[in-house]
Amino acid sequence: MSRIFFKRLYVFLMLSMCLVCAMQLFAQEPSLAEQIFQKYQALLQRADVQEELPIVLIELKKPEHQQFLRPATINAVLDDPDTLKTLIPDTSDDFITLLKEDTDIRTMLRDPDVQMLLQDPEAIDELASLLEIEASVLAPLIFDRYQLLFQREDIRELLPDVLTILKHPDTQALLQPATIKLVAEDPDLLKTIVPEIEDRFITLLKEDADVKVFINDPDVHTLLQNPIEIDALAKLLSVESPLIVVSIVPASIESPGIGEQFSITVDIANAQNVAGYQVSLQFDSEALQYISWEQGTYLSGDIFVIPTVIKENQVSFASTASTMAPETEGTLLTITFKVIAIKASTLTLKEVILSSRAGVALPVTTEDGEVVEPPTPPWDVNKDGVINILDLTLVASHFGETGVTPADVNGDNVVNILDLTLVASHFGE
Questions:
Q1: What is the band of 307 on the pLDDT scale with cuts at 50, 70, 90?
Q2: pTM over the 0.70 mark
């Protein structure tokens, strides 16, 4: 009985080992995309192929093109590459030329495994990933295709915000192809899906013929489902647009006397679609003391003001309005300081955030300011900032001398009663 037991145990162990080996072999078997990548890696990584391949793969994945990707059709195209232009009009002439003239390309495309891969969009994506193809290839195509539309002022104002909203993960989860098609047919659905979308954009989707063509483009649908592509298009849309500038005015101000006050403004320029701001201003607390601030005239409508935060060397402000600012430039706020010491110092803008009505941060650059020491008056002979007996004594000690000397207060190259009188007239300053 023990002999039978050990025989059965032996058979069980052998079967288990075979099963483990089979599972390991199965797990290690490369996918179709990996096989194609290994077999044609050198060809697929050629510079001319890499230049054309991203766009070609996107076109081949489209459902309307997948129907043509049967072995018979692929082989017919390889026999006469010009027919590809008929099947897929967006195919580039450079790719057609490659099909005509490059025997390595034709050999690869006649490979049954390659033809099988071209019928599987997921395998195409895997191959693109293995080739590390740049993710944003649709954005330049869309940008070129709709360049005239993108140059319109109303589109330039609205679209960057819309794209930013649409790439949010919560929105992306809703942007399935069927949903996008429904929105194209009934734009009011977009307001239901994404309430923060501006009504002006919904109106454009309903009434503007050019915008309708744009939103019905299948390539646009594909782009809207890819946050990387959305970012790339948003970047292209702002390439020629100047950054919004927030600056301190005047950029340089001469320090008044100790105890006196002065004001600077924080101005905005090259702006559009701004509905709120957050600004911090750093200053030298040994030279200046923050006194107060006033809202500028740039924001309009009902304005909600966040309480000012005052620290030793920094003061922070934030305000938002019920409507977008109608102008492209103006004053955000005015800030008043008191001089507690006459010295050179900087006024530095920090943590500057501009917001659109949709709560999207707008691109901004800042320009800081400075406080400079006033030139020392000639009657402050010893340059200590105070006109007193020391200055009179210095002039008196050089009385009668000629030539260049600090004691020559009026600059006539002789130290005499005129210089003493000038110092005396400013005594105590």
A1: very high
A2: no
